[in-house]
Design goal:
- There is one protein chain.
- This protein is 22% helix and 30% strand.
- By secondary structure, it is an alpha+beta fold.
- The strands form 2 sheets. Strands 1, 2, 3, 4, 5, 6, 7, 8 and 9 form a 9-stranded mixed β-sheet that branches. A two-stranded antiparallel sheet has the order 10-11.
- The protein is globular.
Length: 216
Amino acid sequence: MTASPVNNLPAGSGWAQHLQERLADATLRDRARETGDHVLNPDLGPYAIWEGPPRDAAVLIGLVESEEGPNVVLTQRSGHLSSHAGQVAFPGGKIDPQDAGPTAAALREAQEEIGLEPGHVELLGSLAPYLTGSGYRVVPVVGAITASPSFRPNPEEVDDIFEVPLAFLMNPANHQKLSRDWKGRRRYFYAMPFGERYIWGVTAGIIRSFYETVYR
């Protein structure tokens, strides 16, 4: 099995500065980098099932320190939601007019969905926008959660909150490239099963983008 690149992260809280430096380097190096569902499906275009201008959104890739290294905070969306019900997701959502950009939106949504106070997040950087087939332009904001987390799921949006080791998610051996039939075509996507959790679609695509941005 291929070793995870995060096995060499600095011990203790040094991993946050390490990631911040890598994200900064990537921003300078890859200003025009594109990422999204269409990377695996170039024949479908960036917004396969959406007409009109993209809708701006943001998510928080929140990292929590543990004895084994940083963990990524994810949610299981509520089963009654009208879209992506029951799927694994990052905290996040649409950027509202009153938000002062993607970072503010990601922090607001994380507070609404999982009870994370914005002041408990040390911002480390962001990834290139991720373009989804459903018409969203999603900015993934990366942050280290600096206080002991006491998450509270909003039952209107979130059924559960859980953590996955960053080392697992940054190990390309755990990145499955799968496909299924969609409107008479093969549509490809990433999946990263973790125990009983099935991480796939946009969430897995953003994780893959994180890997390619920071560790390629």
